[in-house]
């Protein structure tokens, strides 16, 4: 089995890794072409992502490897498909992830190299998509690495690819971040792209866009701003694309290859913002670098073959990238020049001169396609006509004369051009004939079309004349009226001629003569042709002949002055109704020149005109004749009809205009009426309206009506009679009704039957009310009496009655007034209890009394004499003509049901509604008052059982104290059980009393309670001052207090020595200083002092000890006197005065503040600055 050479093309920006014979791996970066050897001649396996499979198809003898998804919808076409399952890689072909085809099918197309070496395995790799991580792919012989160097090389390549395409994997496995419009590749079928660009691009997918979906309105502003930033970044990325690289330049084709935008290759751009797919647009210009560019390709591939170029032409190409409907700036232009080739096919040679024995041919040079044409090859068939050609001429000239030819014979020629690149194809074959004898006699000319002043003629070539022979023709014409014979009218090569400026309806003779360079032929046979006649002139305006009748008249007219050269065949009369009508109707067509116009409408306007028709056509219409037919009286009207329902004394009639108005508008109508019993008609209406109302009729009677219409010609006939019966009328008013009062609340009303006016009374309506102008219907029925109930006593009422029949309701009777008799009073309303605050009686007690009030009821015609109050089982209380009253001698805290009734001379009225009232309980007794705490200026008092309650306690307490004038004043009012009296004087007696209150009122005052404040103790003294006398003696002094209200004040001085726990009194007396001796050296002494008030009581002497002063610390130390000049030693007493607690706290606070300020300054200076 022979070996096969496979040429693998590595695109720019991609890498191809192979394993050499020594086992090491070599990485080859594009652009490059790698020749590989297949030892068995079979197709090496193509490793694809999951879900895809390689298929080999055969198309026109060329095998291609197509990567397609494993789906039943894929149909590669009618070619046979060979499925090759994957098998272990060959030693010379190891694919990498970058070589794996992406989901859109990539076709490994045929590529021709040197030595006619063809391959079907040239993958179009795309670096924009990677399927799966590199670490998840099969190792493919990774265990066969032989040394550390090859392993490191492979790892560097793997890391580089992973960094470049890491984000592409995430984008493929996840939905897009936003619904942007993005291009999508078109479908490919058997390696051919559907919808190929007509500009010559061989392959390339086209763009398609998806609709952008809506976004939430709350995120629109942020997304628009983010989109603007992303758009600018994407434009900068797309504008970084480099200029294309040109390869395989041919005469009419070239291959362009370009790389992805540089930011995407170098990895400088944000990986999250990198587009998934780029769309490229290739622009070509043949008018210079700055000339006009034409789009030759649009798609997602990064290489393309441009076809249909002109040879030996300078071109400039540049690439423009697009993604997400955003275009970057075009790349720099790359220039290239196509190769030269053989010339274009020249045009066929044309004949410039012919004779009987020679033909002279001439031709133009075709496009040389970059190489100068140095010779032309002219071939001919030598007149044989068998399709075999031989060389007739070969040289640089562009014309050639062929001689020694036969007369009147055809020869076929073809031409080719040649330059240094080769020979062009032959031109189209052309047939030329040599000249012969003079032409034979042609056939007579034929008439194509005739006009009024022209004739169009046509003739044919003489029989037996070669098609390429140049023959001219002479057309001659004879006008018999001129007497000059035949004169030429045309001389030329055409076979048609239009002879103009002829007379109408005139016969002319024609003949034709053919001639060439050899001579003229005999004239053809003479033929006669006649011009067409012209249309006739306008007839005269028609005129009326005789009298104009209401429905007819007769017209006549004169013929036109110009008949158009032929006899007039007929006249046509058209008529239009109205003065401005555009519709014309044909009413006559014939040869005579008069016509009777009948079946017309009276009083109408008509327009008439006439035109004539001859052999030359139709003339224009004459001037219009206006005719007005006289009017006649209107026709019979329809009988009048009733408008609405008939009433008892009037009816309303309505009618329409007559169908025939007589040619004049109807101006008046006449309506006549007569009773049915008599035939005496009288006119009840005459006017222009179409309705009227006839009144003053009798109810229920039948009348006959007839109608006629009139115009300017007079009245027309009467219509048929119309009989109408009036409706019955309502009854007459009733007589005043009779009212009889049967009781204070009941009355009987009766009435009589009135005149019915043609219809029986069906019902009566009785209106009743307390006000004459405001009565209401209280009865409606056929009866003649009614009993009114529920009336008020001693009240005036008004009533009236009305009769009703089918015609309606009659008028009301006169109003009748009546008054009901007096009665017992009405029920008492608004009975209520009076609040105790509203009662002004001093004897009123809420615990034993209830106060009432009410409103005066209606007395029903008899004055109210008094009221009866019922409040339980006891006898009711009768009171006079009052509206309030309080009941006394009731039980406390008891509920009573109370009602009241009014009394007059006729009796007692009904009881009012019952109300419930309750007496209040008795007020509470005063509690016992106690003093639970006291001081020289305050007394704390307590009363009642338990502690203070909330404000919701129903029992309130009122505490009072006697003032200097002997009157008790209020100290406290509330629910609490304790109260503290302040601002009192010492050793003073005070009198107090208390009372309890609740909703029943205030209880009695308690007995008087006397409480006395004690005497106050002396105030606290300041800390004593200590002065050292000697090492064993010190003097303590303190402040002096004045006598307190005549009581003397003495002082008590205490000391605590060393570590003792108790103070000992060392002095008690009225002095304000004390000298303490017996001090021990280096020992601590603490001194304090207090004031004592000596009260002079009648019962005896009593001391009140005040609080002690602050403690003063004193430490006794030996004092060494300074050395004198005579070396005597003098002992100086050192006195140490200790600080109080307040002073120590102040010193500590001051130190802390200074320390804080210092720290803040350090932070400000060293840290912040």
UniProtKB/TrEMBL annotation:
Biased composition (Basic and acidic residues): 144-172, 209-218
Principal location listed in the UniProt entry: Golgi
Region (Disordered) location: 133-228
SMART domains registered for this protein in UniProt: FN3
SUPFAM superfamilies for this protein: Fibronectin type III (SSF49265)
Pfam name, any one: fn3
Ranges that cross the membrane: 1145-1168
GO CC terms in record: Golgi membrane
Matching Gene3D superfamilies: Immunoglobulins
Membrane topology: Single-pass membrane protein
Domain (Fibronectin type-III): residue spans on this chain: 240-341, 345-440, 441-534, 538-632, 636-729, 733-823, 835-922, 923-1016, 1017-1122
Keyword check for Transmembrane: yes
Keyword Zinc among UniProt keywords: no
Comp. bias intervals (Polar residues): 196-208
Superkingdom of the source species: Eukaryota
Subcellular location: Golgi apparatus membrane
Keywords: Golgi apparatus, Membrane, Repeat, Transmembrane, Transmembrane helix
Family named by the database record: Belongs to the FNDC3 family.
Record's protein name: Fibronectin type-III domain-containing protein 3A
Organism in which the protein naturally occurs: Alligator sinensis
């Amino acid at each position: 089995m022979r070996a096969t050479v496979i040429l693998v093309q590595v695109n720019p920006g991609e890498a191809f890794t192979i394993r050499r014979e020594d086992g090491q791996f070599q990485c080859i970066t594009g652009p490059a072409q790698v020749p590989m050897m297949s030892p068995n001649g079979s197709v090496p396996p193509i490793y694809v992502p999951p879900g895809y499979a390689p298929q080999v198809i055969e198309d026109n003898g060329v095998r291609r490897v197509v990567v397609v998804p494993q789906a039943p919808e894929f149909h590669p076409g009618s070619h046979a498909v060979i499925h090759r399952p994957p098998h272990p890689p060959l030693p010379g072909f190891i694919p990498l992830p970058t070589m794996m085809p992406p989901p859109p099918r990539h076709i490994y197309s045929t590529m021709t190299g040197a030595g006619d070496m063809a391959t079907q395995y040239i993958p179009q790799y795309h670096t924009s998509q990677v399927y799966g991580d590199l670490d998840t792919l099969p190792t493919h012989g990774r265990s066969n690495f032989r040394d550390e160097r090859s392993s490191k090389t492979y790892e560097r390549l793997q890391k580089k690819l992973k960094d470049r395409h890491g984000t592409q994997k995430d984008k493929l496995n996840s939905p897009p971040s936003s619904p942007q419009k993005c291009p999508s590749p078109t479908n490919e079928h058997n390696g051919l792209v559907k919808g190929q660009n007509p500009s010559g691009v061989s392959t390339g997918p086209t763009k398609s866009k998806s609709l952008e979906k809506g976004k939430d309105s709350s995120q629109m502003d942020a997304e628009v701003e983010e989109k603007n930033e992303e758009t600018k970044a994407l434009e900068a990325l797309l504008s970084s694309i480099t200029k294309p690289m040109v390869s395989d330049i041919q005469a009419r084709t070239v291959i362009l290859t370009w790389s992805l935008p540089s930011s995407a290759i170098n990895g400088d751009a944000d990986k999250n913002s990198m587009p998934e797919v780029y769309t490229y647009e290739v622009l070509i210009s043949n008018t210079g670098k700055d000339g006009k560019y034409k789009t030759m390709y649009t798609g997602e591939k990064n290489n393309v073959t441009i076809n249909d170029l002109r040879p030996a032409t300078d071109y400039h190409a540049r690439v423009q990238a697009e993604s997400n409907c955003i275009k970057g700036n075009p790349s720099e232009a790359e220039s290239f020049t196509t190769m030269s080739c053989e010339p274009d096919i020249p045009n066929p040679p044309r004949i410039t001169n012919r004779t009987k024995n020679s033909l002279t041919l001439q031709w133009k040079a075709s496009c040389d396609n970059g190489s100068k044409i140095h010779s032309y090859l002219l071939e001919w068939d030598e007149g044989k006509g068998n399709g075999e050609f031989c060389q007739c001429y070969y040289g640089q000239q562009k014309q050639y004369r062929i001689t020694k030819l036969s007369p009147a014979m055809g020869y076929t020629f073809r031409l080719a051009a040649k330059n240094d690149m080769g020979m062009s194809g032959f031109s189209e074959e052309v047939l030329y004939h040599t000249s012969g004898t003079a032409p034979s006699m042609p056939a007579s000319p034929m008439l194509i079309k005739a006009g009024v002043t022209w004739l169009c003629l046509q003739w044919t070539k003489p029989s037996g004349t070669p098609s390429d022979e140049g023959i001219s023709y002479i057309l001659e014409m004879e006008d018999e009226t001129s007497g000059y014979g035949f004169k030429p009218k045309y001389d030329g090569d055409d076979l048609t001629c239009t002879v103009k400026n002829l007379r109408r309806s005139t016969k002319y003779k024609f003949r034709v003569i053919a001639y060439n360079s050899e001579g003229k032929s005999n004239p053809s046979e003479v033929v006669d042709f006649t011009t067409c006649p012209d249309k006739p002139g306008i007839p005269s305006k028609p005129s009326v002949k005789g009298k104009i009748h209401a429905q007819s008249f007769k017209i006549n007219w004169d013929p036109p002055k110009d008949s158009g050269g032929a006899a007039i065949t007929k006249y046509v009369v058209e008529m239009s109704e109205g003065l401005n009508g555009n519709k014309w109707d044909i009413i006559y067509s014939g040869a005579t020149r008069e016509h009777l116009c009948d079946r017309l409408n009276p009083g109408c306007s008509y327009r008439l005109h006439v035109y004539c028709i001859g052999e030359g056509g139709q003339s224009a219409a004459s001037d219009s004749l206006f005719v007005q037919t006289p009017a006649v009286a209107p026709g019979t009207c329809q009988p009048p009809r009733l408008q609405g329902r008939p009433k008892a004394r009037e009816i309303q009639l309505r009618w329409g205009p007559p169908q025939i108005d007589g040619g004049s508008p109807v101006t008046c109508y006449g309506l006549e009426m007569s009773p049915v019993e008599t035939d005496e008609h009288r006119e009840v209406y005459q006017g222009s309206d179409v309705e009227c109302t006839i009144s003053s009729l009798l109810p229920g009677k039948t009348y006959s009506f007839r109608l006629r219409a009139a115009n300017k010609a007079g009245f027309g006939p009467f219509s048929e009679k119309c009989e109408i019966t009036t409706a019955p009328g309502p009854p007459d008013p009733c007589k005043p009704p009779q009212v009889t009062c049967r009781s204070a609340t009941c009355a009987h009303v009766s009435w009589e039957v009135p005149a019915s006016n043609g219809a029986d009374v069906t019902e009566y309506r009785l209106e009743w009310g307390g006000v004459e102008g405001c009565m209401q219907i209280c009865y409606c029925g056929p009866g003649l009496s009614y009993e009114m109930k529920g009336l008020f006593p001693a009240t005036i009422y008004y009533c009236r009655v009305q009769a009703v029949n089918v015609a309606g309701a009659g008028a009301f009777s006169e109003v009748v007034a009546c008054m009901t008799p007096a009665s017992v009073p009405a029920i008492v309303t608004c009975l209520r209890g009076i609040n105790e605050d509203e009662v002004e009686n001093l004897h009123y007690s809420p615990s034993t009394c209830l106060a009432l009030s009410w409103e005066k009821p209606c007395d029903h015609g008899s004055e109210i004499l008094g009221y009866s109050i019922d409040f339980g089982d006891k006898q009711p209380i009768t009171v006079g003509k009052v509206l309030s009253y309080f009941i006394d001698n009731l039980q406390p805290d008891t509920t009573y049901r109370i009602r009241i009734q009014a009394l007059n001379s006729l009796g007692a009225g009904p009881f009012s509604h019952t109300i419930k009232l309750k007496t209040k309980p008795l007020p509470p007794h005063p509690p016992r008052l106690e003093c639970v705490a006291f001081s020289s200026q305050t007394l704390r008092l307590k009363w009642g059982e338990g502690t203070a309650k909330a404000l919701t306690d129903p029992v309130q307490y009122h505490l009072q104290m006697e003032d200097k004038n002997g009157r008790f004043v209020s100290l406290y009012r509330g629910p609490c059980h304790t109260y503290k009296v302040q601002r009192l004087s010492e050793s003073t007696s005070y009198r107090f009393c208390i009372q309890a209150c609740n909703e029943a009122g205030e209880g009695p005052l308690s007995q008087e309670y006397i409480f006395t404040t004690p005497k106050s103790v002396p105030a606290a003294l300041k800390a004593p001052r200590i002065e050292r006398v000697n090492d064993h003696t010190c003097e303590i002094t303190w402040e002096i207090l004045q006598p307190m209200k005549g009581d003397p004040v003495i002082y008590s001085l205490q000391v605590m020595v060393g570590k003792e726990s108790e103070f000992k009194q060392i002095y008690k007396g009225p002095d304000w200083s004390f000298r303490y001796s017996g001090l021990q050296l280096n020992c601590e002494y603490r001194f304090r002092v207090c004031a004592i008030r000596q009260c002079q009581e009648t019962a005896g002497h009593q001391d009140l000890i005040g609080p002690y002063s602050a403690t003063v610390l004193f430490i006794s130390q030996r004092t060494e006197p300074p050395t004198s000049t005579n070396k005597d030693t003098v002992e100086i007493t050192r006195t140490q005065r200790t600080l109080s607690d307040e002073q120590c706290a102040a010193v500590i606070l001051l130190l802390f503040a200074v320390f804080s300020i210092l720290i803040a300054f350090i932070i400000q200076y060293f840290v912040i600055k």
